[in-house]
Amino acid sequence: MGSEYRCVGCGFRVKSLFIQYSPGNIRLIKCGNCKEVADEYIECERIIILIDLVLHRPKVYRHVLFNEINQATVNIQHLLWKLVFAYLLLDSYRSLLLRRTHEHSSLVLITVKVLINVLSTNLAFIFSVAIAAKGLLNEVSRRREILLGILISSYFKIFLLAMLVWEFPVSVIFIIDLLVLTSNSMALKESYDSNFIFHSNLLFLSKREPLQFALY
C-alpha cells in the first residue's frame, strides 16, 4: 500500500513488477532478494486471486495489499472512504439479521438499535486500534495502511448478502465472523510486525466476543 511494490514470496521491496514491451507483451521482474518472480499474480485471473484469498495464501495478501492497491495507481483516500461505507453497511446488515432472530420489535426500532450499536462498537474499535498503532508505529501513513488492510481483508462479510436469497442458521454468521478474523490476522501478519499483530488480535476479540455476543 506504499509507493513501492513488494515481492509476494519474501516481502522484499521492488521498484517494478514487470516490463512492458508492447500492449499484451510483458516480462515479469524477478526479486533481487529471493531471485523468484516478484508477483506471478499479475498474469492470474481474478477468480484465481479470489480463491487464494479464501484459502488464506500469504502470497496473495501481499499481492492485493501492496501491488494491486498501490499509491502509484490507486487513490488511497478515496478507496478508504468507500471501504468504510461498505464495511459499516455489511456490519449493519449482520446486526440486523441477529436482532431480527432474537427480537420481535418493529423494523424501525430494530434498525435504530442496529445503527447505534454498529456505530458505537466500530468507533470504539477504531479508537482502540488507533491507540495501539500510535504506541507501536510512528508514521501516520502506516496507521492509515493498517486501517485499509483491515477493511480490505474483511471481504468475507460480503457472503452475508447470500442470506438475502437463502435462509441459513444463525451459526453461519459467526462462522463468517471467524473467517473475517482469520483474514484480518493474515493481512496484518503479512504486512506488519508480530507485536502489533498480537495487540490487534486482542482488540478484535474484545470487539467481537464480549460486546456482540453479549448483545444477542
Task: Give the overall silhouette.
Answer: elongated
Distance between the termini: 37 Å
**Which consecutive residue ranges, at least 5 long each, have pLDDT under 50?**
208-216
Mean pLDDT: 78
Number of domains: 2
Instruction: Return Rg in Å.
Output: 19 Å
Quickly give the structural class. mainly alpha
Number of helices: 7
| Major beta-sheet overview | 2 strands, antiparallel
Annotation, overall tally of beta strands: 4
Can you give the helix content as a percent range?
55-70%
Beta-strand content estimate = 5-15%
Helix-strand topology string: EEEEHHHHHHH
**Biggest sheet, strands in spatial order?**
1-2
Family: Belongs to the ARV1 family.
Protein name: Protein ARV
Subcellular location: Endoplasmic reticulum membrane
GO cellular component, one term: endoplasmic reticulum membrane
Structure in words:
The structure is a single chain. The protein has 216 residues and is mainly alpha-helical. It has two domains: 5-68, no CATH class; 76-215. It is built from seven helices and four strands. It has helices spanning 46-54, 58-68, 76-102, 107-136, 140-152, 171-191, 194-215, and strands at 5-6, 13-14, 18-22, 25-28. The strands form two sheets. Strands 1-2 form a two-stranded antiparallel sheet. A two-stranded antiparallel ribbon has the order 3-4. A hairpin with a 6-residue loop joins strand 1 and strand 2 (13-14). The longest helix has 30 residues, at 107-136. The protein starts with a strand and ends with a helix.
